[in-house]
Structure formats: structure tokens, C-alpha cells
Amino acid sequence: MIKVKSTGLRGAANVCSHNGRNPLTAMFACDETVLGQGYAIYCLFEDCHAHDIQVVRAQFEMDEELKYESLTPLFPAAAWYEREIFDMFGIEPLNHPDLRPLVLHESYPEGFYPLRKKVAVDANIHGEREFKIATAQGEGLFEVAVGPIHAGIIEPGHFRFSQAGEAILQLDAKLFYTHRGIEKAVEGKTVDEALFIVERICGACSIANTLSFCQAVEKLSEKSVPRRAWVIRTCLAELERLYNHVGDTGNLCAGVGFTVPNNIGARLKELLMRCNEQVAGNRFLRGMIVPGGVLFDIDEEKRNVIASTLDTVEKEYERLVQILSEQDGFLNRVKNTGIVLKKTATDLSMVGVGARASGFSRDSRKDLAYGIYPELSFDVITEQAGDVYARLLVREKEVRESIKLVRQILELINSEDNSGLRAADLTYRAEEGSWGISESARGSDLHWVMLDKNQKIYRLFVRSASYPNWPALPVALHGEIIPDFPLVNKSFELCYACLDR
Amino acid sequence: MLKLIEAIFAGRIQTEDIDTVGSKQFRGELNCNTAQCDKCGECLQVCPVSAITINEYNRPIIDYKRCVFCGRCVDACAGCALYHSNLEALPEILTGSSVDVGRVTNIRPGRSLHVRHLDAGSCNACDFEMGALSNPLYDLHRFGVSFVASPRHADAVMVTGVVTRNLEKAVHMTYEAMEEPKVVIAVGACAAGGATYGETYAIVGALDKVLPVDIFVPGCPPRPSAMIVALLAAADLYLERSKSMGNK
Ligand code: SF4
Ligand code: SF4
Predict the structure, then answer these.
(1) Is A151 close to B149, i.e. CB distance below 8 A?
(2) Is residue A34 part of a domain?
(3) Which site among B30, B118, B135, B173 would you substitute to test the A interface, given the most A Cβ atoms closer than 10 Å to its Cβ?
(4) Domain count along chain A
(5) Which of B196, B203, B217 should be mutated for ligand 2, with most atoms under 8 A from CB?
(6) Is the Cβ pair B127, A287 closer than 8 Å?
(7) pLDDT for B47-72, tens place per residue?
(8) CA A296 to CA B145: how far, in whole Å?
(9) In angstroms, what CA-CA distances link A191 with A409, A413, A457, B67?
(10) How high is the ipTM of this complex?
(11) Domain boundaries, chain B
(12) A172: which strand partners?
């Protein structure tokens, strides 16, 4: 960890990023006044060669003014992080190009900074603030407002299109509607108590969030996770990626009203969800991963269920892929639509399918080589075009990789002796930050945890995969037409719940 | 094109009857073998959402509005008295009605309901399960229930998640936009009990703090079958209400 004064943040971040070669993975603040240290801003850079994450910590002294030189002009990826830090802590980035509120909407008063330690978790403070939506102005331009309550069964978000005739000139998304204050809610809770909430940050990324959180706290403990637990965790993680990818392939077709493949996808996803229930007792695989390992085993009966589900899904998914590749009308809609250039992807430090479809090859399973992934054989899929079709192709190929992975893991569970499932009674080092990462269906999901002397959570920061990818959506829609919005949106398939927290 | 037509006709009919029994592993309704219960009170201690109380006969009573079916109480139960059955906890009607939730899955003609989904601050698992209702295995349409795009067209609203500060206004506006009579369904432990994340600066609370709730569906998330039961109960409740409105 590189420690600097607040004035040295920009310089240190610049060095750590290796002129932009190491992507900015996360940036957040922490109120350490209770520990006698003032506020701190942390920047995490992924060091692609060292398979590690470099941490820069900038310290504000107790009585120091909470202002610093914004990093956004250097790293566009910092834009949202800095807005969030300003919203939650009141630490102001000077010369930030767009310092509108991000997380807290109109009903919160100005000057209310919920993540400061002196604000009570259940502070019931109402007021007013201005929440401007960015729009383009000019003769003949008009706006179209959509959401937060949508026509379909999806999560809430408000989208404002500034239109020049049919073409989208600008899109601004107002998100964070489902902001539940989770990072504050877990403060002061034990790791086990927090785990149950972490598991419920997001449904579709339950395993990814739990796994990242567990890895973060496990690094603070002396005990190691039994190997068999890691094998089982990896199986769950790939099952989660699989049901998401299969369902998302079908959903994408709904974006163009192509019903048959949409329903094939929905049916296959249902089969996978039922398999999940038989493995974990919950269709979203909740209640199995815990700090130190897993709660129960995947026995032979469950392994057979998984194996036979995979066989069915694989066969029918291939047919779905075939149908999609042969429909000219469909291909016409998805090719060259919603393009994200590689430069944009790297500038925004995008992750997951969104990044890989634009030729930015990132996959935390390889890059940070956690758990047993280094001994499994799988490929990182990339495409170059960056359009909706490229994102579809990446997903299709990743389904094959995940099936391959689960089969390898089933072999491992089968052949290996039972080395125990859980390291019990973990104790954690206090006042030390620790990160954990895992690859969700949408990309890498990062948690950063710090505990206090009583083994309670002092600070949890969650940077889900959707966080860095959301800002790419407006870029992808530049010059497109509104009817393509659902399609492009579904091609990223981003979570609101994980972003909003 | 041929492949497409082939795909349409290749499959058998996939639709299944509604079954509220889960797989063997499924963590469903909680039961207690009172004979084995040593009344240690461990379950009360570990429940993250304080869903358990002990009644006058020393039996644990579960508040299914709050329970997230995490299994912690079962793990903690020293006497192994508490266990999850694989039966779903069924939706309950909170407002006065003669509808029998246990019997609504019998398909009968003349039933219809238009539903609007409203995410008030969910983790999206409840929403995903609601989306699954339209897949070929559940095929919600056969019951005469369909999702509509606007609250103005809806007879019932299905709400997921705890009501957040950022969505409170939208929740009110959606409800106001619906015509009378209307039915409100709280889906999942968040909307029904509101205890999932505790009380924070960003959370208003359970749905009943904001809207009059008619039916709640237990679960975290509820399985699609439980949601269908709730929707059919809502359809019957809606009919009952419109009749009584017509009589006035
Ligand atoms: S299963 Fe329900 S009652 Fe038992 S601990 Fe979990 S939330 Fe509480
Ligand atoms: S009840 Fe459970 S599944 Fe539903 S929104 Fe709440 S946490 Fe998510």
C-alpha cells in the first residue's frame, strides 16, 4: 500500500496506474476519525502483470479541509467514484467536470453525508436538494423521459434522452433508486451478521458478492479455507455465471421482440434455477458460502443432477445459438448497434462481458487468479467489434466455457477426499483494509472490508461489476435510436441493485 | 427459418401444473418438533431479522412476513427440533376476504387480472422470479393473468423490495395512478417485513408503511409458484371487491 497525503493523491495515482496501463478498479473513502486518523481516500489499481491490486491511500489530517484535486481528468473511470465520495462523505474533488449528486436523490438535504461516522445508521433526515439531469439544449431538440417505473419487469432507473429527430444526441441515466444504505447497514455488525446482508445486495450476483466478501475477510485471518470448500465455491460461482448468461441470451432476444429464442432461453434458465435449488436449497444459491468455507457438500446425488442438467442445457443452448446465427433480421438489428470502442472500454475501466466484447481482455479469474481457477482450464473470450452482437457472442462462448468448467469441477469433487468444508472460528486482524474479488456474470465484483478492534465491520465498500460498466451505456447509445435502447441495455444486462446498494 | 420452425415444434408442451412443494433440499416452511425442543432460545438469538417469537406453550412461532429462509435458526437449534420442510410458505391475505388461498390454483374460467410490477428497492431476485412467471413452464397467461405496462391499466400491483427513500414518491404515484378497486401484493420478505437490511437512512421500511397491503408472499425470494398462488388469490379478491363496489 502506498500512503500519501491528500495533496499527493494525484501524483501517486498516476504512478500506480502506469500511465493508464493498470486500470482503476475502485475508488472510495473511509471515515477514520474514530481511529484518530481523519478521512482517507483509497484508490485500487489492478496490476495486470503482478496479478495483484495496488492500493493508494491518501490521508486527510483531522482538521484538514476535505478537498483534493480531482482524478477524473486523468482517469475518466474516476468520475462516478468521486461523485459518490462527495455524496457520501462530503470530500470535494476540485475541478471535477460534473459534480452533480449521484446516489442521494431530491429528498436528502444538502450537506447530509451518511457514511460519516457521526451520522446514525437510521438517521431520518429529510430536506431538499437539486438533482439535475443532463440534457442537450438547442433548436429543434426534444427530450424523452423513461422510468423509473418501466413497462416490463425490470429494476428502476430513469433515462432521459435528448433527441435530435430520431437520433439520440445524449442520454443521462438517473440511477441509485434502490439505494438501501447497505454499506452503512453492515457497519458495527459481525462478519456473520453482515454476510447475510451481503448475500442480499443483489439476487443475480448473490454468489459473486458473497465470495468477494468472504475472500476479503479471510485474508484478514490466519486460517486457510479447505480445498474442498474452494472446489464447491467455484462450482457455485460457475453455476451462477451460467444461469445468468443463458437467461441473458434469451433476454437479449426480447429486446428485438424475437419470441421463440427468448422463450428457449427462459426455459433453459428455469432448468438451471431448479438445479440450483436442488444443490443449495435456494434458486439463487443463497445460504451456502460462508467465511472460512461452505456450509454443506455437493454430494453424489446433487452432482448427478448438475451433470444431467448441463447435458440438457448444453444441447438446447447450442440450438438456440444456431437459430440466432441464421436469422438475418435478427443479425441486422444486433450488428453495428450500440458500439463501445476499445478506447472507451479502457478509459472507463470496464469489466466483464462489456469489456471483453470491445477487445479489452479482462477476467479476474485469470488476472487475479483466485481460488482454484489457476488449475482449471478455460479460455477468456474476447471479441473486437464492441457492438451488441459482440456481447452476445462473448456470452454464448462463455456459456460453453462455464459448462466446461463445471464438468471439470464435478470431476474434482468426485475424485478428491473430503478435506473438510469449513475452517471454523475465524478471527480477523483489526484496522487493516482487505480486498476480495470474484468474477460475476457481469464482470469482476470487488469488496473492500475493514474491521474494528471488536471484530465488527468498520467499513465495507462494494464495487459490483455493473458499476464501471453503467457509464458505457450512454456512450454506446450515441447516435442510435430509442427503439434500440432496450436491445443495447439488455446486451450489457447490468444490475441496478448491486450498483445502488 | 426452418430451424426456427423446427425448434418450435421439437419441444413437447412444457407447461406444468402449479406445485408448491420444493425439491428435497429446498428451505421452505419451518416446523418444530416440540418434543425435542429444549427451549434454549438459540433460534431467537441467531435470526437476523427477528422473525421468531416464543408463544405461551414455549413453541417458536415464525413471522413469515420477515423470514428470509436462511436456515440459521435450524443450524443453531441444539435439540434439532427446528427443521425446514420442503413446502412453500403460502401467501396470506391480510384484508378481510372469503378467498381461500389454499384452493386458488384450481383453474376455473372467468378469472382475469392485469398486474403492474413495482420495484420499491429490491435486490432483484424477487423481480427475476416474477420475470420467470412468463416462461413456458409457468406460463402465467393460462390463468388469465398478464403483466401490463402502465399502472393505469392495472388491477393489482406487485411490489418487490423494501421501500427506499429514493423510490418512495414513485411508489405513491404508481398506486395513485391505478383505478379503484385495486389490490396490493407485497412480494418477498423485504416488501412484507421490511427487516432484511435493518433500518437505515435510505430505507422507509416495509410496504405497509406506505401503501395498504392486501396480500403478502413469504420468501427470499418466493418461488414463482408461490407468486402464482398470490396472483390467483388477488384475482379472486379483486372480483370480490368489484362486486361489492357494484352493489353499493
Ligand atoms: S430461517 Fe427465517 S426464522 Fe430462521 S433464522 Fe432465518 S430468517 Fe430467522
Ligand atoms: S425478499 Fe429477498 S429476494 Fe426479495 S428483494 Fe428482498 S432480499 Fe431480495
Answers:
(1) yes
(2) yes
(3) B135
(4) 2
(5) B196
(6) no
(7) 999 898 888 777 888 899 999 998 88
(8) 39
(9) 28, 28, 7, 20
(10) 0.89
(11) 30-84, 92-246
(12) A160
